[in-house]
């Protein structure tokens, strides 16, 4: 007999279940007293706090007494009764979420089954509420719905109330949201990461945020790692996974939120002091004993909401008592997870080709329906409805949006942070610096001692084209850092820590000194090794042209990085673009001789190489002449004409420079539009919606 299933007689006999529960005691650890942080955050009034505690007590009294020995509540209850907390009361009533899909064969929309179905629950100040369930049970969708962060294809029905006030979007600064992935900056220390986050989120002077950051470090027990680089370096290891998760939570705590939403935390949530709601697949026995309330989901249905110990009693009443020495969360998931049945069925089919899937999966379906029906008719459900009604009778303190840092401050913080990152990140600056210097030396040696006769013109044209082409091509070494920047921006923009314009300006300003440094260093080597004209103004034009070329190329790289967010795909795309630009750059074939369709119009007009090489050659040869024989000379423009097409106008080189500047600005405008419209999100949703059956990457 499957120890996670009970017989029908057990399900129909509460007395037998009680006897079984009496034989199979399950002891849970007592909850430690939790220190409350961030005392200066707005609190409930004294009468409001008392009413919450009275409501909780009355509701708890109406719940059935569990057969399991409960942890001693006196110390923790007294501790909670003596202190105010910085949290808020959050209630969701009859909350459902549906997902709109698209039928690719008929090119029309259809409404999918509801991902979350009529869920009701609450979270009180200073408590831990866990949303638990198997994969694709709807727990992540429910968390996003409560936090007001549903995707565009998802639609919510029902109510979410913050301090009894109906709200569709929580006020800025009232909540923190920690996603499943830890998006951190490896080049910063733990303390630096939190300092920059505080400066981006909070108004006021820099010095006033020191205590806030130190509080967050203490709350997450990160003091031992505060000065460690997140990504480590050659002498130290990177931050462990557990500490990285703590840091992600601490980053949201610097705002001192009233409510904290977390996907799959590892541990250490007791000291946050705010209302915490989080999802979890399963937990150990020790961690399970720390939860105040549990919302158990399966296929979008609420199988239980209430005290964690009462959930064990609920399973026993439904005929599924927890075996002795079995973790409660393991028992819950084993009873309601259809994935286990599919594995069992596959194993049976390996032994017998005539194995019947339906007979196996029916057991879990019955368990889910039994648990759902038992909960709906139980005193636990009635107690939840009663307490929700009490919590929504009278509005509590109205939570207003907190002040945020000005855009000017944010731009300054992002610029300085990017400068620090670039100086430490070898992928962005040091590798490119080394590659550019090696390129300049190599090209300079190959084309050295070309002389200054008419025959040297073609040699220098080749040298300039090769230098420009490979400087642009080698810039792909900076792709990983651009991808990291885009990921950090996406996370900060989703949590309202930054904005599109702030990010673009900060990145643009911080990239200027590094691009200029690598440009002037490599240009010095190349310019004088191949023997270009020794005039300061001509050399500075050379440097500025190469700088503008790299500036435009950086924007193009950011666009490609945003579209793919994958190093291999970005590198492949950029190399293909650069090869095409080289082919239409006017060196392998004069630009006027290119096929008009596609290659000349429009490809050659989008090539950096055309304007950079034209400008540099015009800078070098306009106004010069070369002797042909003893008495005849030809202008430099004519001498170049056989190898490259340039203009004889003295202002032509400035036109090419302006075109490069326009490209640098234009590509950033395109990037702004893409980021502002969140095009990547819509592309991802469109791709996932063009099917009848949709399965997310991990969980609903």
TrEMBL record:
Any one GO CC term of the record: membrane
Transmembrane intervals: 433-451, 457-480, 501-532, 538-565, 572-590, 654-675
Keyword Cell membrane recorded: no
Subcellular localization: Membrane
SMART domains associated with the record: AAA
Main location: membrane
One Pfam short name: ABC_tran
Keyword line: ATP-binding, Membrane, Nucleotide-binding, Transmembrane, Transmembrane helix, Transport
Record-annotated ABC transporter domain positions: 99-324
Keyword Glycosyltransferase in record: no
GO molecular function: ABC-type transporter activity; ATP binding; ATP hydrolysis activity
Entry membrane topology: Multi-pass membrane protein
Sequence similarity: Belongs to the ABC transporter superfamily. ABCG family. Eye pigment precursor importer (TC 3.A.1.204) subfamily.
Protein name: ABC transporter domain-containing protein
């Amino acid at each position: 007999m499957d120890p996670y299933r009970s017989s029908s007689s057990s399900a129909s006999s509460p007395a037998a279940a009680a006897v079984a529960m009496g034989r199979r005691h399950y002891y849970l650890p007592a909850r430690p007293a939790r220190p409350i942080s961030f005392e200066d955050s707005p609190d409930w009034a004294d009468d409001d706090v008392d009413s919450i505690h009275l409501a909780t007590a009355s509701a708890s009294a109406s719940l059935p007494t569990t057969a399991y020995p409960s942890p001693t509540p006196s110390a923790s209850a007294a501790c909670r009764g003596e202190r105010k907390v910085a949290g808020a009361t959050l209630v969701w009533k009859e909350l459902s979420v549906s997902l709109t899909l698209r039928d690719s064969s008929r090119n029309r929309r259809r409404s999918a089954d509801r991902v979350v179905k009529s869920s009701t629950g609450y979270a009180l100040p200073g408590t831990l509420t866990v949303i638990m369930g198997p994969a694709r049970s709807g727990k992540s969708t429910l968390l996003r719905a409560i936090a007001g962060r549903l995707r565009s294809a998802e639609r919510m029905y029902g109510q979410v109330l913050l301090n009894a006030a109906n709200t569709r979007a929580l006020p800025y600064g009232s909540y923190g949201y920690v996603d499943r992935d830890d998006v951190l900056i490896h080049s910063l220390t733990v303390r630096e990461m939190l300092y920059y986050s505080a400066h981006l989120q909070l108004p006021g002077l820099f010095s006033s945020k020191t205590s806030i950051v130190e509080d967050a470090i203490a709350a997450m027990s990160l003091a031992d790692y505060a000065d460690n680089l997140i990504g480590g370096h050659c002498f130290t290891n990177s931050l462990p996974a557990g500490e990285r998760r703590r840091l992600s939570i601490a980053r949201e705590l610097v705002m001192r939120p009233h409510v904290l939403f977390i996907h799959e935390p590892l541990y250490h949530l007791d000291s946050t002091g705010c209302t915490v709601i989080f999802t979890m697949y399963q937990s150990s026995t020790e961690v399970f004993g720390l939860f105040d309330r549990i919302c158990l989901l399966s296929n979008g249905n609420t199988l239980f909401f209430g005290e964690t110990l009462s959930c064990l009693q609920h399973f026993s009443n439904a005929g599924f008592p927890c075996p002795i020495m079995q973790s409660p969360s393991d028992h819950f998931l084993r009873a309601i997870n259809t994935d286990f049945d599919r594995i069992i069925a596959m194993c049976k089919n390996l032994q017998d080709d005539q194995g019947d899937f339906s007979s196996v999966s029916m057991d879990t379906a019955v368990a889910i329906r039994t648990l759902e029906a038992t909960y709906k008719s139980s005193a636990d459900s009635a107690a939840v409805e009663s307490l929700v009604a009490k919590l929504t009778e009278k509005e509590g303190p109205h939570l207003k949006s907190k002040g945020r840092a000005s855009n000017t401050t944010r731009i300054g913080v992002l610029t300085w942070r990017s400068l620090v990152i670039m100086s430490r990140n070898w992928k962005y600056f040091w590798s490119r610096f080394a590659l550019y210097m090696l390129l300049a030396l190599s090209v300079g040696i190959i084309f050295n001692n070309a002389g200054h006769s008419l025959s040297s013109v073609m040699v220098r044209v080749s040298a300039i084209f090769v230098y420009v082409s490979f400087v642009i091509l080698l810039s792909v070494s900076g792709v990983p850092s651009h991808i990291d920047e885009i990921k950090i921006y996406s996370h900060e923009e989703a949590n309202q820590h930054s904005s599109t314009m702030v990010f673009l300006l900060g990145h643009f300003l911080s990239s200027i000194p590094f691009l200029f440094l690598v440009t002037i260093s490599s240009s010095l080597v190349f310019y004088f090794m191949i023997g270009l004209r020794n005039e300061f103004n001509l050399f500075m034009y050379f440097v500025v042209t190469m700088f503008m070329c790299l500036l435009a190329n950086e924007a193009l790289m950011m666009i490609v990085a945003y579209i793919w967010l994958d190093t291999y795909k970005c590198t492949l795309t950029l190399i293909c673009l650069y090869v095409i630009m080289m082919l239409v750059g006017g060196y392998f074939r004069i630009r006027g001789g290119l096929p008009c369709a596609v290659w000349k119009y429009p490809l050659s007009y989008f090539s950096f190489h055309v304007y950079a090489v034209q400008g540099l050659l015009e800078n070098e040869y306009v106004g010069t002449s070369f002797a042909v024989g003893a008495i005849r000379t030809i202008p430099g423009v004519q001498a170049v004409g056989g190898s490259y097409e340039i203009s004889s106008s003295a202002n032509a080189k400035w036109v090419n420079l302006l075109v490069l500047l326009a490209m640098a600005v234009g590509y950033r405008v395109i990037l702004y539009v893409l980021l502002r419209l969140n095009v990547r999100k819509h592309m991802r949703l469109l791709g996932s919606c063009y099917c009848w059956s949709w399965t997310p990457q991990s969980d609903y």
